[in-house]
Each structure stands twice: as structure tokens, then as C-alpha cells.
Amino acid sequence: MKMKVMVAIDESDGSLYALKWALDNLFNIMATDTMNGTTSENEEGIVFLVHVEPNFHTYAYPIPMGPAGVAFYPSIPEVGDSLKKAQQEKSAAIASQALQMCKDKQVKAESVILNGDAREMICEATEKMQVDLLIMGSRGLGKLKRAFLGSVSDYCAHHAKAPILIVKPPEDHHKKH
Asked: Parallel, antiparallel, or unpaired for β 3-8 and 133-137?
């Protein structure tokens, strides 16, 4: 049976550590046939790398006017387009790095970039893609930050329709980065 694993990725060290953990511990790099001593590329499953971009909202702000009533700031749509483009480039870089990690371990992977609230989109994706396991990193938020910001992994642990594994990096991992 081929295992379908989803790993939620973002720019944090915690998510990349979780992906590394999954690749090292859940997928055997090579399957060996003991009958004839041959090896073949990993056919045990697939990793879906899911990255969620937050919804981008363009807000209208008053623009100061220069002489003769001419605005001297770029228009809101220009700023919004520039920010969207930067966000898309960042998402592509994150997905590319994660895909390369999978390729290096000879594990089949696909990246999926979604837009919206990360908590809800990850839970929806686990259900739609019918994954066997959701893996997430832990950012190690303190109690106060977690209370105000909420924890994506905590939300998913309570709402995802698949088993979830939250990978916490070792203490020395935080000190190195």
C-alpha cells in the first residue's frame, strides 16, 4: 500500500525540520529485493507539500496629494500587485526547497500552494486529498503568543480528518538557527 503523507510547509525552520524527519523516518530511500539483491527507487508512497499563502487584501488608504492635486505615491493596485508577486515568489522558493529535499531522498513529491487561512486550508486539503497522515512542524510559540495568535498545528490537531503528527525539533536545533 502506498502511503499518502501531507507535510505543511512554510518559511520556518520547524516545518523544514518536520519534512526532514518525515523523509528520514517514514520513507525508506531504497527498497531492496532480497531475492535477487537489486534495489529500486522508493515506491512506498508520496509526499504532498502544502504551503498556504494568506489571503491578500488591498485596503484603500488616503493618498497625500502633491502640487496641483497630483498623487505622489504609487497607486494602491500597483502596491498590491507588487506585494502579491513577492508573496508568490516566496511561496515558489519554499516549495522548490522542499521538493529538492524530497528529490535528494528519492521520495516522490508534489507541491500544492493554496490561498486562505492556513488552519482551515490545511484541514480541507487533508480531507480532499484523502491523505493517510498530516505532518506539521512546531514553531514553539510560548503560551502567551499561542493564546493570542493561535497555533496552526493545534487547530489542525483538533479539526483535521486525518491522523496528525506534530514534529518538534530538538532543543539544540533552535539554538543553531
From this structure: parallel
The enclosing domain of 21 has a CATH number of 3.40.50.620
In a domain, 151, yes or no: yes
What is this structure's pTM?
0.75
Domain count, the chain: 1
> CA–CA separation, 96 vs 101, rounded Å?
9
- Domain interval for residue 77: 3-29+40-56+71-176
* Res. 38: pLDDT tops 70: no
Least confident of 14-23, 41-50, 151-160: 41-50
132-151 mean pLDDT: 70
Sheet architecture: strand order including 164-167: 108-115, 45-53, 3-8, 133-137, 164-167
Q: Which residues contact 169 (CB under 8 A, 6 or more apart)?
A: 13, 14, 17, 137, 138, 140
